[in-house]
Specification:
single chain, mainly alpha, MetI-like fold, two-stranded antiparallel ribbon, 13 helices, 70% helix, 2% strand, flat
Length: 355
Amino acid sequence: MTADGVPAPVAQSDGTAALATPSDRGHRRDRAAYLRYGAGKLGGAVVSLLAVLVTSFFLFRLIPGDPVRTMTGGRQVSAAQLASYRREFGLDLPLWHQFTDYCGKALTGDLGTSYQFRAPVIDKITEALPNTLLLTVTAFVLYTALGVFLGTRAAWRSGGPGDRFNTGLALALYSIPSFWLGLLLIIVFSVGMGPIPGLFPTGGMESGGETGFAYVLDVAHHLALPVVTLVAVEYGQTLLVTRSALLDEMGGDYLTTARAKGLRDDLVRRRHAVPNAMLPTMTLIFVNLGRTVAGVILVETVFSWPGLGGLFYQALSVPDLPLVQGLFFVFAAAVIVMNTLADLLYPLLDPRVGR
């Protein structure tokens, strides 16, 4: 814009000049603001990942116990053999030397070699990751859909019997430790109690010997109780956030206007109120996905599910330091990455954020 209020000319690709409208300049400012916002969030994520890398090295060295003696299984081993094991795994080096080696290798994708499996940590993680994703993604889809559906219905009928029941049940289940609920489900539905027979396996991922569609059904049979445990514990948070956000929107003037135009209540809810109320819920969905991957340790341990959580518990009992460090980094990275994606998505849903 020139001093006399005329839009300033801008150069085009063909060499001609065009007038830059206020709308064009506004879009460029918005893009620049979003790029600065995104760069700051990505930079913060990188710093957080580096901090996790450093923390994971020192944190698990506070665990009492000698990994080398644990690996020998209580057998009589000479001092020379113990020294050979320590030299093989680099445990004879000064702590600062171990730390620099660990950081240097981790930055290239090498998380070390597992003490108990004598295999690269990254290979063990890659092997167990699909099993964890099968459990967590299945549970995530179910508890997100259930939480959003029940949350919208509870808010639209706020104060009614259904609202009070759903909110009370969600709060109660959200307060229950996942491992306790998992054990309870095993006692009731796997072992059997009274007239209830044992309908599901007590643990594991498969019975063995099945192929084709029978194998899929077998895995689904083993998957049922762990998924129910995660869904029961996690859906309540999504329900409560969705309900609260929708209640905030229901007093808006635009809903009164929509009703005055003759729209039915269900259309007002689906077309106007719910989309605006979904902004905080969308953020929570991304955060929950990362948190579910990181928080599946107890559920996988209780149900002997062969995923990252069960592997972490197994490594922690040695302690298998390289494997524990690698898994801790993966769990923390899942939370950090999902938080960052939520931060990057939010300004696209609500342009007021990041300006």
